[in-house]
């Protein structure tokens, strides 16, 4: 490559000698950047969603190509976020596409040293059996003075910020119906 071709390939030279003196268009594009395409261009469809991280409910546009999430960005039609996402919301694609994401139920028995995979039905049955037994064992119908309590202090709930509003609402209703007193969410802690 000669000096002249190197200088002509320099964006500042193209900017001052070409039709783009402000450097906002073709003058500043390199050969490499001309071949780049946005991840959103290759999407088969765009699905509107809500960010799962907190209770704000920012709108998201999820770009899907070949049944894989390729990009997530803010939804400018959302009255809540008007197209903006916080850093966690902007990185929510990793929540779905990370190669380290667990997609099976993992269980380690008491005093065990190894994890084992369980079917979802088995895990749900184990959880239900334990909740029912704990509630039965720790139920307080009245106190020593006869005051009606109808509660259990045997279990509590701590919701997470990756649950959406609807999931947290249903968890609150479930644990209240079970008689739990300690129902909290990490967003309040």
Describe this structure in words.
- The mean pLDDT is about 85.
- Strand 4 and strand 5 form a beta hairpin.
- The chain has a 3-stranded antiparallel sheet. A two-stranded antiparallel sheet has the order 4-5. The chain has a two-stranded antiparallel sheet with strand order 6-7.
- Among the domains are: about 30 residues, no CATH class; about 55 residues, N-terminal domain of TfIIb, CATH 2.20.25.
- It has about 190 residues and is an alpha+beta fold.
- It is elongated, with a radius of gyration of 27 Å.
Q: How do you describe this structure in short?
A:
It contains 7 helices and 9 strands; from the N terminus they run αααβββααββαβββαβ. It is α+β, with helices and mostly antiparallel strands and 189 residues long. The chain starts with a helix and ends with a strand.
Tags for this entry?
189 residues, alpha+beta, N-terminal domain of TfIIb, three-stranded antiparallel sheet, 9 strands, elongated
**Number of separate helices:** 7
The CATH superfamily of one domain is ADC-like domains
Q: Assign the structural class, choosing from mainly alpha, mainly beta, alpha/beta, alpha+beta, or little secondary structure.
A: alpha+beta
Relative strand content: 15-25%
Largest sheet: 3 strands, antiparallel
Order of helices and strands: HHHEEEHHEEHEEEHE
Unreliable residue stretches:
none
Name of the CATH class of one domain? Mainly Beta
Shape: elongated
Percent of residues in helices comes to 25-40%
Distance between the termini: 62 Å
What is the number of beta strands? 9
Average of per-residue pLDDT values: 84
> What is the fold named in CATH at topology level of one domain?
N-terminal domain of TfIIb
User: In what order do the strands lie side by side in the largest sheet?
Assistant: 1-2-3
Rounded radius of gyration (Å): 27 Å
| CATH architecture annotation of one domain | Single Sheet
